[in-house]
Each structure stands twice: as structure tokens, then as C-alpha cells.
């Protein structure tokens, strides 16, 4: 009999020192010696092995704004992206509640990139068979990593924005094998919301205080949106800092929230041409547009030799190194969005804008190769245009009517196409709905602990300790 492996609770992902010390030490060791060992599930956290935070602060010398832009980076998560957190959380909740069984079910992870990578990594570590569905125009590295982690992958037509094609394929697979296929959809799973609300948002709140950054408060959380999971961190931040702004970024080539628009783009991981079920748009204060080519050019600036040389002429060398190794395309889009937000709200010195870098450049070498390396003159020009003289343009404030517009866009995807209940959609207008979903962390943690206790002997053998 195959018994699935279950790892940390939400609380242990937020505060990893609460993990059993023997397991924690073994997990730290395996992070270096065997990154595919199942005990690495206990390394899903925004903290380093010594419990320090994974972040850097972009100073005014770089950004041209007075406020601090604080970037939490995720390249050191298992699988190289924080998306492994939501995938683990979705599968852990389904496992301990009996919704999936590794002896019966094949897991299907609909994704536009890192969620699929995380799903492939988590599935194998937890003893499940999996299949990832991914648009064919995603980077070559994504497909390679998914297969390396042990999952099959199906490429669907289109690019980042072609999510309906992914949904259509999942329905096809489900209809073919209804008893054995289980869909783990990041776009409607509230475990995705809970991971980011509790773990990512909780980390943001503790980070600015523990590290005494600026005024030790958060003025804004700025995040480009794909599944609508990461921006749930803003809900936790707002409960602590009620005046904080939550701002969503999206591609100008696919302005779904801002202009009810559509289109294709290449900021892989965001801008999926619909409003997701788990996105709390009624709590948002704004939407800002970013050009996909600007995001790619900024990543090229941070990673090519002349770009790094130029930046090192006025920035600390260690910061230049972090910029070159800790960012992917969406991370660069987040930085641009954060600068635009700081300018729009005229944020002052000491105020903090929080954002994240979901992955790193190692997912995008094939994309970066298509952009010629910059000369010294080009590096200076790109920096001046994309950062130093960035404007607060294309910013849409979240007044009452705009929030309702964003909310109403859910109807077409989720009620008409995906069969969700209208009553639930209507209840999402009330923040109490989202508070209830967030509060389920405690219940889920208790269930995970109970499950681990019941299977402790098996788990100790898996952990090797």
C-alpha cells in the first residue's frame, strides 16, 4: 500500500524553527546533498536555514523613488520558485482530507509555468503520479524542469494568456477518466490563497519589523497577478497595517482588470486573461500596467555583462549580484510596478513597498538569448528609461465601482464556463468571506498534525530520522 508523504503545517512554513529539530536539521542537510529528497518539503519557507529572511532592499540610488522597495526572492525555495508553497498546500489539504489517493489518482496541474513546476516537484516527493498542462509558448526550461522532476507534460495552444485552452484540456482528461483524474487548479483552490495570506503575508509583516526596515510599516503591496494567490499576502498585510495599499500589476498587452482587455504577452506567470476565483479584488486599491518588453529588457540589463558593469558604477556590488541572480521576468515586472506605485502615491522616505521575485533567470535563458546583449551606452539608456524616469502612468484606482467591475469579471469564467455557484460569487463581495477562508489555516494545521501523528512510523522511515 502506498501512503502519501505529508510535510509541514502552514505555521511551520511561516516559522520553520517550530519544526521538529531532528527533521529540520535533516532537511537543511538534504537541501544541499539531495534536493529531490522528500524531507525537502520542510524547506518550503521564505527563510534561510539560519532563519534569516530572503530579501533585498532597492535603494533610491537605483529606483529614483524615496520609498524603500523590498523584494522577497524565492529562488532558494525547493523547485526554485515560491509556487512550490501553493502546490504543496493544495495537495497537503487534499491528502489529509481524503480527497486524493496515490494508489488511485493521477494529479493534473493546470499551469502557465511555475505552478506546474512546483506541482511536478511536490507530487513525486509526496508519492503521487502527476501530469502538468502548460501553454506551448512557455520557456523551454519550464518543460525540461517539469520532466526532470518526474511528471508528464501536455502542451496546449498559445501563450501565457491562453488559460481557457488549459481548462478545456483538463475537462477533456477528466471526462475521459473521471474516477482516476483529479484536477488541482491554482486558480480556484483556496489552499493557494491560504499559503500566501498566512505564510507570504505573515513573512512580509514580520520582515519589516524584525529587520527594522524604514518606518517598520508597509505602505503598499505590489504584485503582478497570475493565479491571484501571491497578492493574497496583501490581505494579511492590511489586517496589520490598515492603510496599506494593495496594487495588482498586469501586462499592457493583456489589460484584463484595468480595461476588461485581452491579448497575448510574455511576462510568464502572470496576466492569464481572466480574474481568478481566489483573487480578492474587493480588497484591491489599484491596478497598474507594465509592458512585457520592458520587463524582459530590465532582466537583460540586470544579467548581461555591460548592464552589471553599468549598475556597479553606482550600486554596491552585492546588490548588483542579487539583481543578476534573484530575478525572473515577472520579478522585473514587479519592480517596475512597485516604482510606478511609489510615484503614484508619492510615497516618502522610510515608507516600504513590498513585492516578490517568484523565480530567477535560470528559467529564462532561452528567452534572454533572443535579446542581444547591451552595449555600455544601451545599458545606460535602458536604465534611464525603465527605472530612473519611470512614470506613474496607466494606473487605475480601486474605487467602489472599479472593484465591482473587477469582481463582476469572475462571472464569465467561473459561473458560465466552470460551473461555480452564483451564491458563492456574490458572497465574495464581503471581506468576511475572505476572513473565513484565511481562518481555516488553524483547522488545516490541526488536521495535518493529526495525519502526521497517525503515520509517524512511516514518515520517520521516509525522512531517515
Describe what is shown at a glance.
The chain has 465 residues and is α/β, with parallel strands linked by helices. It has 21 helices and 11 strands. The protein has 3 domains: 34 residues, no CATH class; 245 residues, Rossmann fold, CATH 3.40.50.1100; 102 residues, Rossmann fold.
Q: In the residues, how many domains can be counted?
A: 3
Quickly name the level 1 CATH class of the largest domain. Answer: Alpha Beta
Distance between the amino and carboxyl termini:
22 Å
In round numbers, the mean pLDDT is 92
Radius of gyration over all CA atoms, rounded: 21 Å
CATH topology of the largest domain: Rossmann fold
The SS-based structural class is alpha/beta
Strand coverage percent:
5-15%
Low-confidence runs of at least 5 consecutive residues: none
Please report the number of helical segments. Answer: 21
Q: What is the helix fraction of residues, given as a range? A: 40-55%
Largest sheet: 7 strands, mixed
What coarse outline follows from CA principal-axis ratios?
A: globular
Strand order of the largest sheet: 1-2-10-7-8-9-11
How many strands? 11
Q: If classified by CATH, what would the architecture of the largest domain be?
A: 3-Layer(aba) Sandwich
Amino acid at each position: 500500500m502506498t501512503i502519501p508523504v505529508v510535510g509541514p503545517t502552514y505555521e511551520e512554513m511561516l516559522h520553520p524553527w517550530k519544526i521538529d529539530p531532528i527533521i529540520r536539521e535533516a532537511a537543511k542537510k538534504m537541501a544541499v546533498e539531495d534536493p529531490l529528497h522528500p524531507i525537502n518539503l520542510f524547506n518550503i519557507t521564505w527563510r534561510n536555514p539560519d532563519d534569516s529572511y530572503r530579501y533585498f532592499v532597492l535603494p533610491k540610488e537605483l529606483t529614483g523613488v524615496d520609498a524603500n522597495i523590498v523584494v522577497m526572492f524565492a529562488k532558494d525555495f525547493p523547485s526554485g520558485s515560491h509556487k512550490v508553497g501553493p502546490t504543496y498546500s493544495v495537495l497537503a489539504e487534499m491528502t489529509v482530507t481524503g480527497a486524493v489517493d496515490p494508489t488511485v489518482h493521477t494529479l493534473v496541474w493546470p499551469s502557465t509555468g511555475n505552478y506546474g513546476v512546483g506541482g511536478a516537484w511536490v507530487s513525486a516527493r509526496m508519492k503521487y503520479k502527476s501530469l502538468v498542462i502548460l501553454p506551448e509558448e512557455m520557456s523551454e526550461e519550464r518543460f525540461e524542469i517539469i520532466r526532470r522532476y518526474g511528471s508528464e507534460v501536455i502542451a496546449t495552444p498559445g501563450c501565457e494568456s491562453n488559460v481557457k485552452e488549459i481548462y478545456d484540456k483538463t475537462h477533456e482528461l477528466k471526462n475521459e477518466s473521471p474516477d482516476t483524474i483529479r484536477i488541482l487548479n491554482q486558480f480556484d483552490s483556496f489552499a493557494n490563497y491560504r499559503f500566501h495570506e498566512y505564510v507570504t503575508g505573515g513573512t512580509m509583516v514580520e520582515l519589516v519589523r524584525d529587520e527594522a526596515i524604514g518606518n517598520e510599516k508597509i505602505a503598499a503591496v505590489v504584485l503582478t497577478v497570475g493565479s491571484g494567490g501571491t497578492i493574497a499576502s496583501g490581505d494579511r498585510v492590511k489586517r496589520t497595517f490598515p492603510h496599506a495599499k494593495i496594487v495588482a500589476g498586469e501586462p499592457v498587452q493583456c489589460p484584463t482588470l484595468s480595461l476588461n482587455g485581452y491579448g497575448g504577452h510574455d511576462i510568464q506567470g502572470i496576466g492569464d486573461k481572466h480574474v481568478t476565483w481566489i483573487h480578492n479584488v474587493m480588497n484591491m486599491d489599484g491596478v497598474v500596467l507594465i509592458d512585457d518588453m520592458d520587463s524582459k529588457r530590465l532582466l537583460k540589463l540586470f544579467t548581461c555583462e555591460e548592464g552589471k558593469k553599468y549598475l556597479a558604477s553606482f550600486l554596491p556590488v552585492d546588490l548588483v549580484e542579487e539583481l543578476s541572480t534573484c530575478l525572473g521576468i515577472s520579478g522585473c515586472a514587479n519592480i517596475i510596478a512597485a516604482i510606478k506605485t511609489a510615484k503614484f502615491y508619492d510615497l516618502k522616505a522610510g515608507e516600504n513597498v513590498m513585492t516578490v521575485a517568484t523565480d530567477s533567470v535560470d528559467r529564462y535563458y532561452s528567452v534572454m538569448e533572443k535579446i542581444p546583449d547591451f552595449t555600455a551606452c544601451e545599458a545606460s539608456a535602458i536604465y534611464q528609461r525603465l527605472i530612473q524616469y519611470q512614470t506613474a502612468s496607466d494606473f487605475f484606482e480601486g474605487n467602489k465601482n472599479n472593484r465591482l467591475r473587477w469582481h463582476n469579471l469572475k462571472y464569465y469564467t467561473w459561473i458560465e464556463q466552470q460551473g461555480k455557484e452564483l451564491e458563492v460569487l456574490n458572497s465574495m463581495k464581503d471581506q468576511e468571506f475572505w476572513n473565513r477562508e484565511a481562518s481555516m489555516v488553524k483547522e488545516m494545521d490541526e488536521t495535518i498534525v493529526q495525519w502526521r501523528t497517525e503515520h509517524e512510523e512511516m514518515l520517520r522511515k521516509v525522512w531517515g530520522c
